[in-house]
Amino acid sequence: MAATVIDGKAFAAKVRGQVAEHVDRLKSGHGITPGLAVVLVGSDPASEVYVRSKGKMTVEVGMKSFEHKLSADTSEKDLLDLIDKLNNDPEVHGILVQLPLPDHLDEDLVINSITPAKDVDGFHISNVGLLSTGQKSMVPCTPLGCLMMLRDHHGSISGMDAVVIGRSNIVGKPMAQLLLRDSATVTIAHSRTKDLPEVVRRADIVVAAVGRPEMVIGDWIKPGATVIDVGINRIERDGKTKLVGDADYESCAKVAGAITPVPGGVGPMTIACLLANTLTACCRANGLDEPEGLTA
């Protein structure tokens, strides 16, 4: 039996629709419009495309979009001064500094200069600590999107055995914290885990976020398990460049109960959750109820 395909593109569109409805209610009921500021330093082509997409979708859901494009040789002081200005701007509820930054800029310093309440990427050390101790925080967008899809597919993941392959600060670690918060039993594995295939075979939920193309194969998957593939890898095959995940889709889909494709799975959820986080930040800043179903 072929796995159910979890359509991230369709689910992300649904999430954006929910965000737009909440934004409309904020405008009509309270005279408040959420605002997202995105800062891009340099001219990395992939980052430029991503920033344009974020700005377009921000406007589509009725939010204010503030884009700041800085030259690659921008000084650390000038960047920190801009972030300080955005921290103190009441029209800006979310701040995102597009990564990676040029080598002469200290990413940790820059990220931690953002006010935690406006850190819609969820990377500030305060938000990392709050999430790890089960307190209210801003949550990284990609893990939040994965959690939303799991909740939508399973209803509840309480008591399920989950394996997260990958230990990055952006996906692996926060993903494990979110799964724990929803009462799953969680194992964090990685490329150096002994008997990794055997560890993965125990899992009802597999989150592949290790950064190795098609590393997870169908033989590793427990029959009926849900596979969430966070990987985005460009490979050359048959003379063409192809986008693949960290799981070998064809072999895994033959065994899994449900699986996210690449592309069209987790990817679209990241921007949708960025918008959801901005909405959440706006509600918190104004002492209003958080949007139900759009937070962790």
TrEMBL record:
It catalyses: (6R)-5,10-methylene-5,6,7,8-tetrahydrofolate + NADP(+) = (6R)-5,10-methenyltetrahydrofolate + NADPH; (6R)-5,10-methenyltetrahydrofolate + H2O = (6R)-10-formyltetrahydrofolate + H(+). Residues 140-284 form the Tetrahydrofolate dehydrogenase/cyclohydrolase NAD(P)-binding domain. Gene3D superfamilies: Leucine Dehydrogenase, chain A, domain 1, NAD(P)-binding Rossmann-like Domain. Residues 6-121 form the Tetrahydrofolate dehydrogenase/cyclohydrolase catalytic domain. Its EC number is 1.5.1.5, 3.5.4.9. CDD domains: NAD_bind_m-THF_DH_Cyclohyd. GO terms for molecular function: methenyltetrahydrofolate cyclohydrolase activity; methylenetetrahydrofolate dehydrogenase (NADP+) activity. NADP(+) binds at residues 166-168, 232. SUPFAM superfamilies: Aminoacid dehydrogenase-like, N-terminal domain (SSF53223), NAD(P)-binding Rossmann-fold domains (SSF51735). Pfam families: THF_DHG_CYH, THF_DHG_CYH_C. One of its GO terms (biological process) is tetrahydrofolate interconversion. Homodimer. Belongs to the tetrahydrofolate dehydrogenase/cyclohydrolase family. Catalyzes the oxidation of 5,10-methylenetetrahydrofolate to 5,10-methenyltetrahydrofolate and then the hydrolysis of 5,10-methenyltetrahydrofolate to 10-formyltetrahydrofolate. NCBIfam families: PRK10792.1, PRK14186.1, PRK14188.1. This is Bifunctional protein FolD. It comes from Pontibaca methylaminivorans.
